[in-house]
Structures are given as structure tokens and as C-alpha cells.
Amino acid sequence: MNFPDSLAVADTLEKATKNDSGWILHHIMDGRTLDFEPFGEVHIPQFPLLFGLDITPTKHVIFMWLSAILVLITFAIVASKYKKTLIPRGFVNFFEVLIVFVKDEIAKPTIGKGFEKFLPYLLTVFFFILFGNFLGLLPFSATFTANIAVTASLAIFTFFVTQAGGIMQHGFLGYFKGLVPHGIPTALLPLMIVVEFLGLLTKPFALAIRLFANMMAGHTVILALLGLIFFMGTYFIAPVSIGFALFIYLLEILVALIQAYIFTMLSGLFIGMAVHQEH
Amino acid sequence: MDLAWLAAGIGAGLTVIGGGLGIGKLASSAMEASGRQPEAAGAIRTSMIIAAALIEGISFFGLVICILLALKA
After folding, report:
1. How many angstroms separate the CA atoms of A168 and A172, rounded?
2. How many domains does chain B have?
3. By residue range, what is the domain housing residue B14?
4. What does the pLDDT average to over A165-179?
5. Are A64 and A132 in contact (CB under 8 A)?
6. For residue A13, what pLDDT is reported?
7. Minimum Cα–Cα distance from B55: chain A residue
8. Are the CB atoms for A162 and A156 separated by under 8 Å?
9. B7: domain CATH number?
10. pTM of the full predicted structure?
């Protein structure tokens, strides 16, 4: 699989001025280099093949590691402070607000009884996506949630947790029998089976595309607005361009929060629908 | 003459119309409901944001298809 080679500033400039929009995708898609544009770049070395597979970390993989490490460190600090005192202050207090928010507004209303089993998964997904989205807003960084492979993997995790929860609650055959609602005329039964089964598959698909498209669109708009300066070739458009880009950037902060919340809430909803099939 | 570019542009415009209409209707009924019952404004605002994100998700499906078209060109 070919990853795009790194482009130096001059190449980006040349492409933007010539109205060739490949540079926008280069800044959003995965690659083998970490770009620190005016200062140079770091080329990630090729790892040896493991069982014939290429496991070289790419830019997005490195940022996923960073987000995971940040989540681990944060929660290690929060958990250790909770052992000493139940009344948090400062940093721990802030994360207590978020954790209680996920527990009371997302897990409890959507899953209902027995939500404690799924709370670790929901918390992990929420904070991983949140930290990832916010990391993407910093300079010289990449948004790994703007990568369809990452969001598809997260959606597949949700799918597995949902099915596992439903099967553990109702038994293997009982779960699939319970998919089709009670009391429908027998003529509609084959259609309902197909519809419900496909519904199982389309829901994670929508989750993946929603997060991916939201994150990619925000960054694309910002890059396109800033690229307008190069395309027009004049300084006078700079204040307008940067003003709009700043507005979209602030909107991106809101969208980062909202998309993490929506992903977690819909995951909770699907888990709740699988575990409590009577509704 | 590359029709894929044109199709991507028209598709993106139509997608924006659909999403804008949907979210506009949603926002208008949210405003109305908040005006009728100011105490419920917080709950209405939360539900409005959730519904807006879901409608935006649908419009992004169209956006992704338009981007695929534009990239193929």
C-alpha cells in the first residue's frame, strides 16, 4: 500500500497556487512522515516485516498511541487521587465532571439496568475520541479520527460489545429471535427478519461515517480557506480568509466535543437496545 | 469536459440544501418550544444538539460521496 510521500512547503505552495487540490488531502490523510513544516520533517523508519505484514507506524498510529497514553496517564492520576479523598480538587475535579456526565447522561438513560458492565467501554471510547479530536486541533498534529480505518475499527468494537452484551443477556438464539418485534403479521415476517438483520450492520456503519466525515470536513474547510490566500495570490484576502478559518476552528472545537458525545451516546443506545430487547 | 467535477458540485449543493432545511426546521421548533416553556429550555437544547448532529451525519454521507466523485476525476 502506498502512503503519500512528504511534500515540502514549496511543493504545497506550488500546488495551491496552481489550483491543484491534492495538498489538502495530503495534510489530512495518513503518511509516513511527521511534518513540522517550516522546520523540516521526521521520516518514520521502516519496521521489519512481521509475518509478512508491514507494521511500520504511520502518523495516525503515532497520534493514536499519544492519545491512548494521555488517557491512561489522566485516568491513573484521577484514580490514584480518588483513593486518598472523595472530594476532588482542580484537575481531578474537571475529569470527575466529564466521567459523571458519561455515567449519568449517557450510560444510565440509554442502557438502564446493568449499565455498570458497559461503563468502562463507554468511558474509554468517549475519552479516546475526545482526546483524539482535540489533539488534531493542535499545530503540527494529525487527526486520527479523520481516518476511516480508525473510525471503522471503533464502530466494529461497538458492534462486538453490542452483540456480546445482547447474546450474554438473552442467549445466542434468543437474541436473534428477539430482534424481530412481537405481534407482527406472519406475512411480514421474512421482510422484518431481513430488515432487522441489515439494521444490525448499518448502525455501526453510520457511526463510523458520521465521525469520519465530521472530522475530515472541518479540517478540509479550514485548509481550503487558508489555501484561498495562495490561490488568489494576493495579501488582501488574508484577513477575510483567516477570520473565516478562525470561526470554523472554534466551531471545530465544539464539533470535537459533540461528535465524541454522539458516538458514545449512540453506542450506549445500541447496547441498551440489544440488552433490553423488550423495548 | 469532466462531468464528475460538475456532479460533485451539484451533489454537494443539494446535500447542503437538505441538511440546512432539516436543521432549520428542527431549530425553529426548538425555539418555539423554549419560548412556550422557558423552564424546559435546557432539556430542549440538549435534544436539539443531538438531533442536529444526527441530521448532519446524514448530510455527511452525501458529502463523502461527492468527495469520492471529485477525487475520481
Report:
1. 8
2. 1
3. 3-72
4. 88
5. yes
6. 67
7. A210
8. no
9. 1.20.20.10
10. 0.87
